[in-house]
Write a structure and sequence with these properties.
Blueprint (H helix, E strand, L loop, with lengths): L1 H27 L3 H30 L7 H29 L13
């Protein structure tokens, strides 16, 4: 069980790392589009890694008590892979249609 716990910890740490990287991208990048791109990519991967860690932990420790929880977690991973990029695209398209201008090299950051 120690090896399973180490693997779970690595998945959770990697997920937290990508979520933290998305936060840094949100704070440091120059405009709406690049900020949304950073958060969209990092949040999707971070959430999937965290849920995968939870899936492995549950399968190793509690699978006999609640056998459908891993199935629900797999459905959640699929939903996140489908919904997050779609939502990010929809928000970017709405911003572009309403006139939010992309940042250009040489412009001041606001």
């Amino acid at each position: 069980m120690v090896i399973i716990d180490v693997i779970v910890t690595l998945f959770l740490a990697a997920g937290i790392f990508f979520m933290f990287t998305g936060v840094i991208g949100l704070l440091r990048l120059p405009d709406f589009y690049t900020r949304l791109h950073a958060t969209g990519k990092c949040d999707t991967l971070g959430e999937v890694l965290i849920i995968t860690g939870l899936l492995i932990y549950h399968a190793a420790h509690y699978a006999h008590e609640a056998p459908l929880v891993p199935v629900k977690l797999i459905f959640l991973i699929v939903f996140i892979f489908l919904a997050n990029p779609t939502a990010t695209h929809a928000i970017m398209k709405a911003a572009y249609m309403t006139g939010v201008k992309p940042w250009k090299l040489g412009e001041e950051r606001r």
